[in-house]
Amino acid sequence: MPKAGIIYNDDKSVACRVANELRDKLISRGWEVSLASGFGGILGYSRPERPVCHTRIEQLIPSGFDEDVAFSIVLGGDGTVLAAFRQLAPCNIPLLTVNTGHMGFLSETYLNQLPQALEKLLAGDYEVEERSMLSVRVYRQETLLWEALCLNEMGLHREPLTSMCHFEIQVAGHAPVDIAADGVIVSTPTGSTAYSLGAGGPVVTPDVPVLQLVPICPHSLASRALVFSDTNPVTIYPATENQLVMAVDGNGGCYVTPQDQLQLERSQYSARFIRLQPPEFFRMLREKLGWGLPHLAKPTSVELP
Predict the structure, then answer these.
(1) Which of 24, 78, 182, 230 is catalytic?
(2) Are residues 200 and 185 in the same domain?
(3) pTM of the predicted protein model
């Protein structure tokens, strides 16, 4: 019996209802179905009195999901999609993302198109697009304090955000550089349209095997966004006396002290998106972010009599 999965946002009543309807429909067509909430992929935040608060990457996999699952359907917004990939990427499961949220930048289809999408899915009429993910780890000396998979970005900054601090950053074996800024972002190509875009970083198409380092409000004209090969690991040393805050995919993270170091590298796991039609990244940029839309000419001035 073939196996399928469903990940849904249990905070949205419509996602809960559709998840149950989908499960029943798949079972009626001879599929074994595993159902799980995207809540299991929510990382949570450490607290000053409890600095270590995390789950190992492979332990986020929900019960009933394994490499025998042919595909999983995700019902929710971008936050649920990010959580679902943290849960299922270690199993190599491709995801069909169905938007029940607002922006839906990571969504492939919508609820009103779900019946047709399901038929194409069951017929195997789709492609799988692989996107890179980051492994983010925080160490204190040799002790692993925190780790997570990341599809968009890691952000590191001080509380409050509008306070400049220093970071020593080493890319691969190159000499460390010092960056004075409110914070720093390390982003994947998928994350180039998220937080790093707002911080002035470039948009990178998903097929380019790179990472980017983007300072947040740098205190130097020389500190600009840097794009480099994703085969290069990144190590960040907080060069400030103050405690910093790290967030992954805007979802969860931990406190980082001057004794800690962050190690980031391209993960062995990939985010596998089911595409019902050939991926068209520029169309998504245009529809979601307004990129490339023509400028309207100003109306011709008319002299009043």
Answers:
(1) 78
(2) yes
(3) 0.90
